[in-house]
Amino acid sequence: QVKLVEEGGGSVQAGGSLRLSCTAPGFTSDKCGMAWYRQAAGKQREWVSSISTYGSTTYTDSVKGRFTISKDKAKDTVYLQMNNLKPEDTAMYSCYTCRSWGRGTQVTVSS
Questions:
Q1: Are 60 and 69 contacting, i.e. CB atoms less than 8 angstroms apart?
Q2: pLDDT tens track for 80-101
Q3: Contact 76, 28 (CB under 8 A)
Q4: Which one of 19, 53, 86, 91 is most buried, counting C-beta atoms within 10 A?
Q5: Per-residue pLDDT for 67 more than 90?
Q6: In this predicted structure, what is the pLDDT of residue 105?
Q7: HEC sequence for 6-43
Q8: Residue 52's closest CA among 27, 69, 75, 37?
Q9: For residues 63 and 4, what is the distance between their CA atoms, to the nearest angstrom?
Q10: Interval 4-22 mean pLDDT
Q11: What's the confidence (pLDDT) of residue 1?
């Protein structure tokens, strides 16, 4: 089990930006890829974005061009930069790596 701590959630208006971070103290991101998922109220959890151990990135279609995933190996941290946020991005965002989940951070986007 890897302990993951997410930060950076909050409430913004549509069109605003937030940057989420997921830190895994003592864990090296070279072991596993890392991913962000989100779950809106009353909906199933959905995959948002991933970054591989080599740094390649993938995104779900609804966030392409707006979200950017990146990692800082020195800090054992993965980031999700979210720009041009939309109300439909409102959800609890959680990170995942090596079969471990963080507790999540809430993102709320108002119109």
A1: no
A2: 999 999 999 999 999 999 899 9
A3: yes
A4: 91
A5: yes
A6: 97
A7: EECCEEEECCCCEEEEEECCCCCCCCCCEEEEEECCCC
A8: 69
A9: 23
A10: 97
A11: 79
Q: Scan for tokens 């995933």, then name that residue.
A: 69
Cβ contact 94:37 at 8 Å: yes
Helix (H) or strand (E) holding 81: strand 77-82
- The size of the chain, in residues, is 111
For 16-42, what is each residue's pLDDT tens digit?
999 999 998 877 667 889 999 999 999
Residue 48, amino acid: V
Please tell me the distance from the alpha carbon of residue 79 to that of residue 63, in angstroms, as a whole number. 15
pLDDT at residue 29 in the model? 62
Neighbouring CB atoms inside 10 A of 100's CB total 14
Residue 96 pairs in a beta bridge with 35, 101
Q: Which of 12, 3, 1 is nearest to 106 (CA)?
A: 12
- 108 closest CA partner among 78, 94, 88, 80: 88
Question: d(Cα 82, Cα 106) in Å, to the nearest integer?
Answer: 13
